Every structure is written in structure tokens, then in C-alpha cells.
Amino acid sequence: MERSQMTGALIMVGAVLQMILFLWAMTRRSYMAVALPVMGALAAVSALGFWIGWTMFTAESEPEEEEFEEALSEP
Fold first, then answer.
1. Chain center to CA of 66
2. Alpha carbon distance 48, 34 (integer Å)
3. Which domain holds residue 22?
4. What is the pLDDT of residues 4-55, one digit of tens each?
5. pTM exceeding 0.90
6. CA-CA distance, 67 to 6, in Å (whole number)?
7. 3-class DSSP state for residue 70?
8. How far is Cα 15 from Cα 48, in angstroms, rounded to an integer?
9. How many domains does the chain have?
């Protein structure tokens, strides 16, 4: 796994853990008037973070610059 793919996987895991932790904490108290709007905003941010992580994780790697130069120099 390349570095960008590892970073993408860590972002996805972080987004999922953040949402699970918030949902667990929300059930511990009855602050629904505050928790529901915050949950909506947090869900949107977590979804965006997961999408960015997924994009980084599934991106194809670019060829190394040296390999590219060698390919150009060969007849």
C-alpha cells in the first residue's frame, strides 16, 4: 500500500470512529435539541472525510519520475 492509500484508509477509519463515538455519547444524555443539529453537521463532515479518504485510497499510483524518464529515453 502506498502512502496516499494508507492516509486515505486512516481518514476513512477516523471518520467512522468519530461518528460512532458521537452516536454513543448522544445516547448517554437527553440533549436532543442540541444533539440533533450537531449530529447532522457532524454526519456531513464525516461523510465528506470518508469520501476524501475513499478517493485517496482507491486512486491509482502515478509512475515514478525515474521510470517515466527511462521510458522516454528508450528508442
1. 30
2. 22
3. 3-73
4. 888 888 888 988 888 888 778 777 776 665 777 787 888 888 889 888 888 8
5. no
6. 23
7. helix
8. 9
9. 1
